[in-house]
Amino acid sequence: MSPYNVGRLCSIAEAHMNSNNQKKYEDSIARARRISPDSKAIKELEAKNALRANQTEKARDLMNQLPSLKNVVRFTNNRAVALIQCDRFQEGIEAYKQALVALPSNKVELRCIVLYNLGLAYARADNLEEALATLKQALISQDKQRRTRVKSLMKKVLHAKKSGEPLLLPNAKSGHPLTSQEQLGDLDQDIVYAMSLDPGESCCFRIFFHYQSEVPLEPYLNLKRPKFILRESIKKEYALGLEKLMKAG
Q: What confidence category does residue 170 fall into, taking pLDDT thresholds of 50, 70 and 90?
């Protein structure tokens, strides 16, 4: 793809942004603006960068110009989860809070997504009071599945608060073995969310099976888009390279 394509330049700029190379980010964005000053992709990326830089007012102004904020919310969630995985809970929580301040008030469902994730972050940080207060705000969602998830998490938080028992949540870090139906249920929407596609996009998802897991993952990863037909001839267990060692031996 031509490096002078707006989409390509935005991808390059985003890579520089994520690498904290602000100068190269600005250079790439400037080149993209010269090609298409009013590009939605540029405004979307600038909104992401504004959130990273704690420029809430600028982020809000840019978000108000965008027809869809799905990618910005996804970016915020990925960034916050990455911070939380590194035990930087407060920074992850602040990322969600900044997004809430910047999100337009009429984007109710997107705000509820962020509120749920913020409540989950508070719960992981063992701040049960804030978790409950935040999750209650997410109950205004009109999405039935989302409300069910919110209520389920609230129930767990309330139980932990009243009983004094530790709050049991799926491990946020990738690679954690799935050992129960409950963990799969909590993870299901995150998997679907991560695999969502925009019109015109095409991709292939590779799904692994943990070699120690006794839980069948296929029913929970059987998405309608893209659709895969699992064939025994190509199915392999995820064995951390063990099969190669066995062949070599």
A: low
